[in-house]
């Protein structure tokens, strides 16, 4: 099976035909005040910078000036192409942007929500100018997309988005651990700071993963509240094993998850550590198709390690050896 993949993505650039850039869609919600508006625009700018460093496609929704909203000083490049010309509301724009994305590719789609959220005890929403967007809306719009997806909701009351949007192979991050954490959240700022920051490259492999950015940002959130002598009113969660149960940053030792959510059967964090906006030089040498195959095999290794007790020692090591052999073959192909 692997041999066929390797042949398709020969080291001579055949893979480039299929090459597609990852997409990062940043949605900026209703700011409420000019001060918030300026902050949100700044964070969106950091995502845009990361995308240009990492050669990812960047689109922003909710940043262009419309009548009745606070004027924001923005570079034209911050505006998504769709948002110029006759405009629909931001909710429609988001729906259309997602509908226009490739349905089937190994290129990741990142959806980043920056703004305020609400929760009425039943439904969590992200506040847009005009009609809001709910977790159910997003779940519906993302359903046709069969590609790696990361949904990051950095707003207050964002936790319910995690259970609704959790899916196999998908990373979901929220700024809060419950819909009732309703205060303004700092997580979005620290995540935007960390996403392409070399300091956040915790395992020192030359690239900062989404997991590493999540852990770094969560640490800085805690530092912020403790330095201010305030109670921590936001606790970010990450889910990437599709069980809809989030894992907190303090359940990791370094980048290794050590604690499962109650009722969870596997650990979160491994998949999120495979998402990067800015790749290292070494990683860039691997064609995207092979990279996806390598990622799949690496997750198999992790799964095998987690289920070690199910196998005899011989069985375990022969399975492990086979996987490591396949991974080594991929690196050999790309040298
Ligand atoms: Ca790293
Ligand atoms: Ca989980």
What can you tell me about this protein's structure?
The protein is of the alpha/beta class. Strands 2-1-3-7-8-9-10 form a seven-stranded mixed beta sheet, sandwiched between helices. It contains ten helices and twelve strands. The chain has two domains: 68 residues; 259 residues, 3-Layer(aba) Sandwich (Rossmann fold), CATH 3.40.50.1460. The two termini are 21 Å apart. A hairpin with a 2-residue loop joins β11 and β12. It binds calcium ion (2 copies).
Derived from helix and strand composition plus strand pairing, the structural class reads alpha/beta
What integer is the average pLDDT?
89
Any idea how many domains?
2
Number of strands: 12
**CATH class membership of the largest domain:** Alpha Beta
Radius of gyration: 20 Å
Task: Give the neighbour order of strands across the main sheet.
Answer: 2-1-3-7-8-9-10
The shape is globular
Report the uncertain regions: 1-17, 67-85
β-strand percent reads 5-15%
Ligands, ions, cofactors: calcium ion
CATH topology of the largest domain: Rossmann fold
Task: Please give the largest β-sheet.
Answer: 7 strands, mixed
Q: In DSSP terms, counting alpha (H) and pi (I) runs of 4 or more, how many helices?
A: 10
The second-level CATH architecture of the largest domain is 3-Layer(aba) Sandwich
Query: Alpha-carbon distance between the termini?
Result: 21 Å
Helical amount: 25-40%
N-to-C order of helices and strands:
HEHEHEEEEHEHEHHEEEEHHH
